[in-house]
Fold:
Amino acid sequence: MDNTATQALELLQRLIATPSLSRDESRTGDLLEEYLTARGARPERLHNNVWARSEGFDPARPTLLLNSHHDTVRPAASWTRDPWTPTFEEGRLYGLGSNDAGASVVALTETFLALRDKALPFNLLLALSAEEECMGEHGMRALVPALGPVDMALVGEPTGMQAAAGERGLVVLDGTARGKSGHAARGEGINALYIALEDIERLRSFRFERESALLGPVGIAVTQIEAGTQHNVVPDTCRFVVDVRTTDAYTNEETVALLRAAVRSELTPRSTRIRAVALGDEHPLMRAARATGRTSFVSPTTSDRTLMPFPALKMGPGDSARSHTADEYILPEEIAEGIAVYHRFIENLALEYEH
Structure:
């Protein structure tokens, strides 16, 4: 490993050893702020989000955001190691947040520090954000307005350094079917459970008229149901939960309206802010990814990318299958590869803008 990858690995070990659960990331925020300052950058901070701009930052040029998150989920109960003690075993670095998304944080940080004073046809803006795992109010939603104009973003998440061109959005619907209670033996009342079952079947067979070229059809799954108080009372209320994976063919609000019109039950969205994103094949980010030898795919997981109102590509070291699992780990060579690929990607993106 070269010196840059070694520095990244050392920083990652310090991040692992500093607990940073979502909404409690102040200590890793302090660590990253101090690290960037020591390396000659001039970081800024809002809540636990830390960012820095490249030298000679010119608002007249486009701006490329380099983003990843330094918060983690809570460790699973089945960890066999101390999740906050960085441990090397058989070529693996174990530790909470090592894969998701500490490896991306340190690889993007070292890439930014190496290129921040280079002549590029766009500005670099490094933003290491908080509260990604809970999509909290003080994470990306607070950060985006503070950053100023951004034209495009490279989002670091574990993708095996392949290019995630899109990801589906998410709307969780709380469904309520209403009937009328009665005695089961007398056949009285209006059974809310039957109403819900009919609506669930409608949702199961529902097909939207439009389909996303990249993301495919909207996905609908009923995942929870609850009704009744005792065996001989016809239930007057039945509640169920619908998991809807949205696409760019419809806005989340349009999706909700179409589903509401298809059923008798009340459907109430918990939130519509997690939107689908799809990057066009000829966008400079995608062209640069292909020139760097990256394969594009649709990511099955959501990220802060869904909260960005500008084009973004998701790509980072590690494997999403390791995320949120016990004994999470990263390979040092994955970090070294990540830094090398990020450098080549930015060089190819610069060629796109120079031409």
Residues 332-354 form the longest helix (23 residues). The chain has a mean pLDDT of 96. The CA atoms of residues 78 and 112 lie 36 Å apart.
